[in-house]
Specification:
Radius of gyration: 58 Å
Largest sheet: 5 strands, antiparallel
Distance between the termini: 75 Å
Strand content: 15-25%
Strand order of the largest sheet: 4-3-7-6-5
Number of helices: 13
Length: 528
């Protein structure tokens, strides 16, 4: 059965990946083994062909070189045929296996052997007194060698060494001698003969031997190549398997080979690709989750906008129609209807202003006007501005402020942040309860805490309070809610200042409430 598919949904588009089933008619190991065997067979065939066609020529060429070297050595010591020269010829016969003759040309058509390396050959000496009327013994060359020298005597006399294959007249078709002839002086010639017995038969036997060796080599190469190919192909199979996992979007498998060759380089590249794809897929999944959240927030935002517009517009339309139809009979009713219409118009105007500012604050073109100012002085002014509302609700305001804190920020936007948080605390603080305003240094910055006494917020709502309209519809009492955009504006402005903000519950034996905090960097100095 197929493995479970891995899928990823991006913006409503589902990406699925499934590892392909890879089938091979022939494995690389088989192909590699067959290639090696084919090479061995080719080599064996080429050796057999070369042995059949060129062994005789090579053998003759090799002997020609040897014969010429022997001729030069003999010529360097030759003066006249004697016993010393005979011993030299016999010694060379033993070492080379060739027959050595020194022949004398007695007339243009007759040659006789005066020295020979064959056993029991006696050197021709000058006749003794008792033999002065006797002719010296005649030892003639074999007929085929005689004919060869006679036919080429002019070339030999010119000083050119002569070498050839000479077929034996009384032997079979495949028997011949290698004959070398060269001139020693004006009357004497050196003839070197190496009998070659059945060279074709020898070549055939050699070919049979080579064929047997070749067959054994082929069988051995099949075994060795199969083992070697398997060891080479094993990491390739592993890499192929890992590639299949990658194709199935499974990046947990890695290549761990250490062959110190191109395969290891390929495996490391596959690992790198796998890691990068894994990283990209995780980033894509995270982006997809964020996109889903943003789409949900966008949906919530438009639903909130629609709701916030619908309520005041409905009231304005209803009371306007009542006035138009004359349903308000008394001046008091007319004044009441008009007051409601004006209040809802102000609320709608404030809501539209908040939406426009929220969109503007999220834009990259939104620019802060940084300057150095006294934060404590700004806080005192904001408290003074809201003092009537605080006193009318009978709220107890406690301040824990240093004498002066200078910061480098946008004073108007910082004022907007504090007013939003303070108004939020005032709306959710009941009469005779406390609001605590605290400022202190922390982490090379300044921390502003606005704490209101009252019930805690459910923990599941805390992380979402800075989302647009969440406060209005999810967590607090709707009758006490503002536009639902105040905390979103606070978060955007704090982010622009590279600060931090949040809301936490406080629950101690002596106090229960909610703390909104803002931390701002770029603290310059503080005077107590």
């Amino acid at each position: 059965m197929d493995k479970e598919l891995r899928q990823l949904e991006v913006g409503g588009i589902i990406i699925k990946a499934k590892g392909p089933k890879i089938k091979h008619s022939q494995s690389i190991a088989t192909k590699l083994s067959l290639s090696i065997v084919a090479i061995i067979i080719t080599i064996v065939v080429l050796i057999l062909i070369a042995n059949s066609l060129f062994l005789g020529d090579y053998y003759a060429s090799k002997n020609k070189t040897i014969f010429y070297q022997e001729y030069e050595e003999i010529q360097s010591v030759f003066e006249i045929p004697n016993q010393d020269i005979l011993e030299i010829l016999r010694e060379k016969d033993k070492t080379t296996g060739s027959l050595f003759y020194i022949i004398e040309k007695s007339d243009p058509f007759f040659f006789r052997i005066v020295l020979s390396s064959i056993p029991n050959f006696l050197a021709i000496e000058p006749p003794s007194p008792n033999q002065r009327f006797m002719e010296p013994p005649l030892v003639e060359l074999p007929g085929e060698q005689f004919e060869f020298i006679k036919d080429n005597i002019d070339s030999i006399d010119s000083g050119e060494p002569l070498f050839a294959r000479v077929h034996r007249q009384m032997s079979g078709d495949n028997e011949f001698d290698l004959v070398f002839a060269s001139k020693l002086d004006s009357n004497y010639y050196l003839v070197i003969v190496r009998p070659v017995e059945q060279l074709d038969e020898l070549t055939s036997i050699t070919n049979q031997f080579l064929l047997i060796i070749g067959l054994l080599s082929i069988l051995l190469s099949i075994v060795i190549s199969r083992i070697s190919a398997s060891s080479i192909v094993k990491p390739i199979k592993e890499i192929t398997k890992i590639s299949g996992y990658i194709a199935n979007l499974d990046f947990t498998h890695k290549y761990n080979g250490h062959s110190h060759d191109e395969i290891e380089t390929l495996g490391n590249s596959i690992n790198k690709i796998s890691s990068q794809l894994d990283s990209y897929m995780k980033e894509l999944e995270d982006a997809n989750k964020k996109l889903k959240i943003e789409m949900a927030l966008q949906k919530r935002f438009f639903a909130g906008v629609s709701h916030e517009f619908k309520t005041p517009i409905g009231l304005i339309r209803g009371y306007s129609e009542s006035l138009e139809l004359g349903l308000a009979k008394s001046p008091e009713e007319i004044a009441e209807f008009s007051h409601i219409i004006l209040d809802e118009t102000d609320r709608l105007n404030h809501f539209v202003s908040d939406i426009l500012f929220l969109v503007k604050s999220e834009s990259t073109e939104f620019v802060l006007n940084f300057k150095t100012f006294d934060l404590i002085n700004l806080l005192e002014n904001i408290v003074e501005k809201n003092s009537n509302i605080i006193s009318n609700k009978h709220i107890i305001l406690l301040k824990k402020l240093p004498q002066s804190v200078s910061i480098h920020a946008d004073e108007i936007r910082i004022s907007q942040i504090i007013e939003n948080l303070l108004n939020n605390a005032i709306r959710h603080t009941k009469p005779n309860k406390k609001i605590i305003l605290k400022v202190f240094l922390e982490n090379n910055g300044v921390n502003i805490d606005i704490i209101n006494e009252g019930k805690n917020i459910e923990s599941k709502h805390l992380k979402n309070l800075f989302e647009p309209f969440y406060s209005a519809f999810e967590s607090r009492d709707k009758t006490n809610s503002g536009t639902g955009l105040g905390l979103s504006i606070v978060r955007n402005l704090v982010d622009k200042h590279k600060g931090k903000c949040g809301i936490e519950n406080i629950n101690t034996p002596n106090f229960e409430g909610v703390k909104a905090f803002v931390w701002l960097p770029f603290l310059e100095n503080m005077d107590n």
